[in-house]
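[job 0412] stage=fold_complex status=start
inputs:
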Amino acid sequence: MEVTGLHKSFGDLEVLKGIDITVRGGEVVCVIGPSGSGKSTLLRCVNLLEEPTSGTVRVAGFEVTDPEVDIDRVRRRIGMVFQAFNLFPHLTTLGNLTLPQRRVLGRGRAEAEEVARGNLRRVGLTDKESSYPAQLSGGQQQRVAIARALSMGPELMLFDEPTSALDPELVGDVLAVMRRLAQEGMTMLVVTHEMSFAREVADRVVFMDAGAIVEEGPPEQVVGEPQQARTRAFLARVL
Ligand code: ADP
Ligand code: MG
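[job 0412] stage=fold_complex status=done
writing structure:
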């Protein structure tokens, strides 16, 4: 993923003020920063949930921001996991995982179920395929949401504060799944306040404030020995 000169305004409010960020294949990049700094807007611009005001976004060889691009084809290559799990409440776990594969990718039932079961194994939920979302804990629902995204075979996974809505005792299971994905070589851009996850798993950490990247580098540098006063002030509040 390569983002170059990304600007985004909502009316008079300039939310992204020229962002450059690259995530190479197999890399994990964590984005940290205060609330309102534009982290979610950045992720939403990557898969065109928001239209950038200017700048370019490339993902898996496609220029997302090219007006000629088939955005549905590009979106299939990008998995997104939000703070809210957004599962279909009337479908079982298996139904949640197979419906998008069948609708969007045109897979048949047998193939979609095989892919779904493989991904439920990856997130440790093989025993929950017949459960409805309301019968699952928040952490289990988020792992279903991750398995659903993986079932589409993405080349890039975007995570927007995936553990922020969870009770503290459920956070670890979701982070463990993300850690395993990283070890398997998944390319990931992760907005998170979990500094221990960023320290252990990220290849690079990007600190954003007020719509700009203030500092970026390996976690031991950005989290361990931040150079910028704004990064130090933020870390003092969250650590
Ligand atoms: P973060 O994820 O870092 O908390 P956001 O990207 O959600 O930040 O928001 C950055 C700024 O953009 C905030 O001031 C927010 O109010 C504003 N914003 C986000 N989405 C919209 C929108 N659809 N319309 C207007 N303002 C928005
Ligand atoms: Mg956000």
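[job 0412] summary: The first strand starts at residue 2 and ends at 10.
[job 0412] exit 0
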